[in-house]
């Protein structure tokens, strides 16, 4: 029987936040669902979910976005992991990352939260930080702007022109991580851009 993977895009709920940098994880989930002709639907775990497949005959995917705010993502993620009986090593978190330049990706398993409260809350709720992460770079704010304000700002017009490519690559990275493993995905997606 095919393994089930839970792929969660972190962000904040509601129209006020949907186009902000902090919600790039949710944008990647939307891309993965669109590729499969799926729509996210309400789930009792305070999340929106689409059940689908990596490809026919391959791993089952549960694509999800919590309805909670970023800093309280752990509850919905842990409830979904229990509901679908998915161990932490098959819970993939897709999230924004200040310490990676915009239009770059990094993948890893485990490690610290780097000040990201969504990651901190999920690790606490799952009882481990050893889950795969697709970290989508949003870069640091210019000048003295507070990072807390930066992540809640919409992408700039220049970034918005590149954003579809970023989301496409991040979705590819999720698929490759699940289908071929972390190392193969890192080798492809950590390469410097041409």
Write up what this structure looks like.
The active site is at 22 (proton acceptor). By secondary structure, the protein is an alpha/beta fold. Helix content is 35%, strand content 21%. The chain has helices at residues 24-35, 74-83, 117-126, 147-150, 157-180, 182-189; strands spanning 4-9, 41-43, 47-53, 60-66, 91-97, 105-109, 132-137. A seven-stranded mixed beta sheet has the order 2-3-4-1-5-7-6, with helices on both faces.
- Please compute the radius of gyration using only Cα atoms: 15 Å
- Fourth-tier CATH superfamily name: Peptidyl-tRNA hydrolase
- Give the biggest sheet: 7 strands, mixed
**Count of discrete structural domains:** 1
- Percentage of residues assigned to helices: 25-40%
Kindly report how far apart the N and C termini lie. 40 Å
* Strand order in the largest sheet: 2-3-4-1-5-7-6
Strand content: 15-25%
Keywords: Cytoplasm, Hydrolase, RNA-binding, tRNA-binding
EC number: 3.1.1.29
Active site: 22
Subcellular location: Cytoplasm
Fold blueprint:
Elements lengths: L3 E6 L14 H12 L5 E3 L3 E7 L6 E7 L7 H10 L7 E7 L7 E5 L7 H10 L5 E6 L9 H4 L6 H24 L1 H8 L5
Features:
single chain, 194 residues, alpha/beta, Rossmann fold, seven-stranded mixed β-sheet, 6 helices, 21% strand, Pept_tRNA_hydro, Peptidyl-tRNA hydrolase, cytoplasm, RNA-binding
Provide a brief overview of the structure.
The chain is 35% helix and 21% strand. The protein contains six helices and seven strands, in the order E-H-E-E-E-H-E-E-H-E-H-H-H.
